[in-house]
Amino acid sequence: MTRIGILSFAHHHAEAYVGNLRAIQDVEIIGTADDDRARGQEVAARSGLQLFTSAEDLLRRRPDGVIVCAENVRHRALVEMAARAGVHVLCEKPLATALADGNAMIDACARAAVNLMIAFPMRFSAPLLEIKRVLDDGRLGRIFCCNATNQGQNPRRHRAWFVQRSLAGGGAVTDHTVHLVDALRWLLGSTIEEVYAQTNEIMPSGGDVETAGLLSLRFRDGSFAAIDCSWSRPDSYPTWGGLAIELIGERGVIAADAFRQTLSRYPEQSPRVQWHYWGSDANQAMIEEFIASIRERRPPRVTGEDGYRALEVVVAAYESARVGQPVRIPAKGQPTDG
Amino acid sequence: MRVAIVGSGSMGSVHADAWRHTPATVVAFVTASENEPARTLAARHGARLVTRLETVLDEVDVVDICTPTDLHVDFTMQAAAAGRHVICEKPLALTVEDGARMIRIARERGIQLFVAHVVRFFPEYRMARDMVMRREIGRPAVLRLSRCVFHPRKSDNWFIDPARSGGMMLDLMVHDFDYARWVAGDVVRVFARSIRASSPEAQVDHALAILTHRSGAISLVEGSWAFPSPSFRTRFEIAGSDGLITFDGPSATAIETHLHRENETERHEVPLPRSPSHESPYATQLRAFYDALHGGVEPPVRAEDALAAVQIATAAIESARRRMAIEIAPSAETP
User: Exposed site from A38, A80, A240, B328, fewest CB < 10 Å?
Assistant: First the structure.
């Protein structure tokens, strides 16, 4: 039996992870702890989970692993606490909101010899895995360029903290850039050297963060990519948003949409069309990888280091938007790829 | 109203067909050297075929320039000096300096200079812009504009010669640079990356530009000559503070491939988008220019707008080359 705890339900993905964990044989969810007492009680009741009085209390029951789904700025404290308790960690993305925090989390887990996995489900997306096979087979030849989108509805409809800088660290750039940065590093097998970004808050955030962002990345191998991370899907959109990439190579173009395996439903009364996803569940495969890495005593396929590389781009994007020019990474004084 | 069309290539032919939807008459085609396709074109429209513009300048009211871009400035100077109105294919010119000269001489000679930014006359683009102007989606925040076509394989291939066409970023992306500015207002900063700049050895032309508008809105403009023939895909979306407009959004497929065949033997010339309608956007455009010349109606696209689009495109090219964002300062000739 592999015993897992969930530290905080601040991120609504935690609710999906409960279902993912329950679908795996010989996994026991020992319970949850949440510093928001009301949220913890509500989720524990709805999901049938035991509610611990604190994260320390949960960790004293010696789970094999925990999933950290706290607000972005609170990831570090919980991950360090889990590492001290000798417990493996799957941390919701983004790893952190500052590079120093990310470094500290990676160090803490390395010292404690526990796994630090980061929740980048796109590594497990069936359409993106198919793209990866096409690229690895060389069917597109050399890849020169990528046009990518990870647009969504404003996530404040799920949780208010997403639009509060003090808890989220930032808005659309923080929330949506990291998935594509990681997917592109993985697909292209190259390192990002330079970031340009422009942002605005013309679409009201309801808080104090940017809602729109366009990024332009340059990779070490000379290829480049654009990322649209905007919360530009209205509440009436047929689904929460999406993630799509278009790759331009020597032999042609290939485009993948990770969430467009859907049925459209047109209700008789409501004017609202809805897209219902029927594709494979990337979260399920990601959670299975976390469990497998614990059982097989090996590092997971997506690590804290990957989370750190994505965070570097987020930090550089904010700096670029501030100065209006591209910004090199890693910034001076930061460690380079090993 | 009598028109001379300079150029007997595909755009000259498209314009000649479009002029038939107006009361104007195409009386002559001007071509560098007489050739069979040019003779056929002229005969089809009952027009003369001449090799020098001055031969017919006395007979016409309007000179419609459908030549390679590098010739726009000289023909405009010649027509304007003779007091003839000018309609010029896009882009206005290869450089901001040339475009500014064209606008100055038009002002000095009191003639009209209209630039064929035909995307403004495509119904889907026009409707979306009208919606934005009516504030139906609030303030524009993020625009995505994409124009992905195959590599032009014209016989003389002036399109792919940057010295003649300005290259893909000027020749093709200028459409969407103009449209972005038409929808979201003046552009103050441009950043672009292109395969031409990043991998000059590659035979692939594709670019991604980020525009920052004075309003704070941001636009992602994608231009491509990298698709297999005969692709012509245009897409756009405009996200505003109060809603979203999309044209050709994501299709219900997880993966789409457009691979080049080993031997692409089909010889497609200049790619033109096609969508069935009662009137081609080229005809709508020339009717609007006719009304502006004949009835003094405000033209839907001013030369100053076309110059601003050239300014954005040349800034994008410079940005890709110098790997830095380029700030755009308003000039005397831009609005």
Answer: A38
pLDDT class for B228, splitting at 50, 70, 90? Answer: confident
In angstroms, rounded to a whole number, what is the distance separating the alpha carbons of residues A220 and A195?
12
Alpha helices in chain A, H assignment, sequence order? 13-22, 37-47, 55-60, 75-84, 99-111, 126-136, 165-168, 172-188, 282-295, 304-323
Q: pLDDT of A118-176, one tens digit each?
A: 999 999 999 999 999 999 999 999 999 999 999 999 999 999 999 999 999 999 999 99
Chain A nearest C-alpha distance from B307 (Å): 24
Q: Are residues A139 and A248 in the same domain?
A: yes
Q: Nearest to residue A11, comparing CAs of A175, A185, A130, A189?
A: A175
Q: Do A232 and B256 touch (CB under 8 A)?
A: no
Q: Do A202 and B256 touch (CB under 8 A)?
A: no
Set of chain A residues whose Cβ sits within 8 Å of the Cβ of B241: 202-204
**Overall number of domains in chain A:** 2
Residue A297 lies in a domain: no
Instruction: Assess whether A142 and A259 both reside in one domain.
Output: yes
The CA-based angle A154-A158-A161, given to 5 degrees, is 80
| Interface contact flag, B260 A251, Cβ < 8 Å | yes
The CATH number for A73's domain is: 3.40.50.720
The ipTM (two decimal places) reads: 0.91
Q: Which residue of A has its CA nearest to B138?
A: A203
Which residues of chain B neighbour A260 with C-beta distances below 8 Å?
250-254
In CATH, which of 3.30.360.10, 1.25.40.10, 3.30.450.40, 3.30.70.240 is domain B120-274+302-327?
3.30.360.10
Q: Give the one of A139, A211, A226 whose C-beta lies nearest to B220's C-beta.
A: A226
Binary contact (A222, B144; C-beta < 8 A): no
